[in-house]
Amino acid sequence: MPAENDPQNVPGQRDGEGIPSHYQQMAEFSLDGIVITDLEGRILIANPAVLSMLEIDSTSAARPLTVFDCVAPESRERAHRDFFTMTDGRRGSMKTYKAITARGRILSVEVIGNRIMYDGRPANIISVRDVTDRAAMEEALKTSVMKFELLANTSIDVITYHTADLTLTYISPAVRAVLGYDPQEMIGKSIADFVHQDDIPPLREVHGEFVRGKRDTATIEYRMLHQNGQSIWLESTIHTITNPPGAGLKEYYTITRDITARK
Q1: Most CB atoms within 10 A, among 25, 143, 149, 254?
Q2: Distance (Å, rounded) from C-alpha 200 to C-alpha 168?
Q3: Could you tell me the domains of the chain?
Q4: What's this model's pTM, rounded to 2 decimal places?
């Protein structure tokens, strides 16, 4: 891909079908990578952002000849299929692939493309965005969620999440053994609906301290009503979930166990 094909030196319009100068400027200064290819995938133009993303020296002769040279082996077959679907004249949709840089690093990239006319011939314009950091965070979150689900689903303690008004938003399956309820019977209801009436005032007092920011953890003992009507003594350790600013309602989680036998 010779230097004369850099965005700032794109040949001018021919018969109204070239790339207008404002598109050249957009490509040159875009933070996203922009590539123009022929219908076989040969690269005609690559803007500075995509050269930087793929760690390609703009003066180097050893540039990729096709877009497929920039795709990691595990994504190449799918990228090839998607590319030629786009060249059939259908607008591309956002896709995620693994790309490989000139230095051999693997990136996660989002790609979308469309058919255009370039120098009087059909071509494809492809926008590329590096989402490697986001993909890593999503994978870490997915792993974290899987670990939590494994813990919650196997723990003999009851794990719950609730909002500042005591509305239950999550209850682990262990509640079936401890209180006889299916989790879905309790989610969306107030904790107070299941607490022994004599223990509601002290529970609200402690929880009020959480809401006012005077506590971020506490351990309390109280009674809840089993589905069969029996009072069950419980010990709950409550924690505040620290959410980033603007993340919505503050939540709390508790780890609860049956202590009836020691009462």
Answers
A1: 254
A2: 15
A3: 3-134 (3.30.450.20), 154-262 (3.30.450.20)
A4: 0.48
